[in-house]
Amino acid sequence: MVEFGGWHMPVQYGPILEEVQCVREKVGLFDLSHMGRLRVTGPDRVSALDRIVTTYVNRIPVNSIRYGLFCQEDGGALDDILVYKGEEDVFLVVNASNTERDVAWLKKHLAGADVTLEDQTQELAMLALQGQGSVATLQAVVEDLDVSTIGYYKSGFGTLCGMPNVRVSRTGYTGEDGYEIYFDSNESERVWNALMESGAEHGLKPIGLGARDTLRLEAGMSLYGHEINETRNPIEAGLSFGVSFHEDKGDWIGREALTKIKANPTRKLVGVITDGKRAPREGYPVMDGDTEIGKICSGAVSPTLSKNIGTAYVPLAFSEAGTKVQMDLRGKRQDLTVTDLPFYSRKR
């Protein structure tokens, strides 16, 4: 257990590599209650958020979800978020370490709009089921909703462990099929135990933050503070799918800067693989001969690929898959091969 974003969180329940394999092959249960959960209501909720969020909120279908970001005027990422479009609200899931700052950012830029912002982080628990056994595990404790009919990046509402109107979304941060659920935090322990019991026959195990980081890295998913931050923008991070330049969206914070970056990027986030003994780790210099061309953003041992993997920003000239570079280990070099992201996809 460690302090993480102001929360006491489990890094691992058992060996991290075994936890990764459990999610890839069976099903895992994650406590994600450290993530921020914000609800925006009021007549101006959509139009006001479209001036703040990079995704086009007005075009999101009801009960659908989109990935987006809060950006600075210079295009640097303040946070990456999930945007849930409801009939009467917009629900935002933000990163734990950024929740306080995100709330302040929203209050500042929602000022003058007819909206209400609620921070529901404390009142709502958040759990995730990820892996092949997630459908059966969740359905056993949900009534009034066929969870198998929820599409990818869609959400619905059902009765969970006797609690009505619980939000269920087909989302996750592992590259596997799965769900994230939001419910009264006072019921956290009861729901956790019910899911552990219903998932036992499917090989369910609790999964910690360490395995979650490896899973998302294998799936090529960015982590705030690593692949993206205030000095790194979503275009060069390969997150253009979460940025809308549609003319009908109008102006939004960072649009002008990101338009220019899109037209003339100078670097690209890539994957790197090494057969060497040392796994890439954050901060290791990436070298071309005697020239430092970047730094490792994230790295791990991948049990799924049986390789050491990582991410790094490199100049465009070094971004093509198959390009050979090196990482510097306090003066010693280890070869790296640039590869496209993601490293792993369950569809392939």
Q: Write down the secondary-structure element order.
A: EEHEEHEEEHEEHEEEEHEHHEEEEEE
Strands across the major sheet, in which order? 10-11-12-13-9-3-14
- Can you say what the CATH homologous superfamily of the largest domain is? Probable tRNA modification gtpase trme, domain 1
Which structural class do the helices and strands define? alpha+beta
Q: How many beta-strand elements?
A: 20
Q: Compute the gyration radius: what is it?
A: 20 Å
Q: Describe the sheet with the most strands.
A: 7 strands, mixed
Return the CATH topology of the largest domain.
Answer: Gyrase A, domain 2
Classified by CATH, the class of the largest domain is Alpha Beta
Query: How much strand?
Result: 25-35%
Number of contiguous helices:
7
- CATH-scheme architecture of the largest domain: 2-Layer Sandwich
Uncertain regions spanning at least 5 consecutive residues:
none
Total of domains: 2
Q: Output mean pLDDT.
A: 97
Helicity, as a percent range? 10-25%
Termini gap = 35 Å
Q: What would the principal axes of the Cα set say about the shape?
A: globular
Topology, please?
Layout: E1 2-4, E2 7-9, H1 16-25, E3 28-31, E4 36-41, H2 45-49, E5 64-71, E6 77-85, E7 90-94, H3 99-110, E8 116-119, E9 124-130, H4 134-139, E10 142-143, E11 155-160, E12 163-169, E13 178-184, H5 188-199, E14 205-206, H6 209-218, H7 255-263, E15 267-274, E16 285-288, E17 291-302, E18 307-315, E19 324-329, E20 332-339
Parallel strand pairs: 3-14
Antiparallel strand pairs: 1-2, 3-9, 4-7, 4-8, 5-6, 6-7, 9-13, 10-11, 11-12, 12-13, 15-18, 15-20, 16-17, 16-19, 17-18, 19-20
